[in-house]
Amino acid sequence: MQVGWKHFPFDEIALKSDTFCTALNGLRIVQLSDLHLGKSVKVDYLRSLVEKINKINPDLILFSGDILQTSALKVREQLRCFRELKVPSYYVSGNHDVFYGLKDLKTLMQESGIICLDNKIVELKIKGSLLQLVGLSDRYSFIRGIKRPIKELFSKLNPALSTILLTHQPKDISLIDNFRIDIQLSGHTHGGQIYPFSIVVKYFQPYISGLYRHKDTLLYVCRGIGYWGVNIRYKVSSEIPIFTIN
Known about the structure:
This protein has helices at 43-56, 76-80, 95-100, 102-111, 150-154, 197-204; strands at residues 2-3, 10-15, 28-32, 60-63, 89-91, 114-116, 120-126, 129-135, 162-166, 183-186, 210-214, 217-221, 232-233, 240-245. The protein is α/β, with parallel strands linked by helices. It has one domain: Metallo-dependent phosphatases (Purple Acid Phosphatase, chain A, domain 2), CATH 3.60.21. A 6-stranded mixed β-sheet has the order 2-14-3-4-5-6.
């Protein structure tokens, strides 16, 4: 059983994509998912987390949603810890972020240098080659009057570039159609968080944890590091993936 915020569950994972640009071999990405930050999450924990990530020296840090478990203004100090991250960092919203308020989250994350990728495309030059990132806002963003212009957004992708899709819910893999998405990174499920509840979750989430292949796209579903409901995980450990693309 895993209880509370005292774990740094880094996990080295090799992702072998048949379509990714070979010039980007060795690309290192840290995925942070489902933090569910509330006032009970200690600032010292997050400072230590950031220090450990910086020592890993990744090329990129991607937050795959559900950063909040309360109003962003109530965890201002926690969010400020991320300003110490030393490499380009991006995030997309999750369903909890939609519920607790996207505007304040965006303001505070921007102050910390973390860029919102909701319904946007960015090109990054890494290792002398271009990498394309595309992000989707959460499926429930319509509650805040935010539309997801999926086909319009994806049609703007450059098919010549290696592309990573960052989106909170794994089911969004069904939206990629014939567009080039080499890798999709998602969270949301917590891997079920507590056994045997995790068995039930599998009936609603066909992609619950780990690595999947959908046509030419690799999908990784991160179990996340936070908690929903109670601060307990049972037979479903938390996870901070460190991907190396090869």
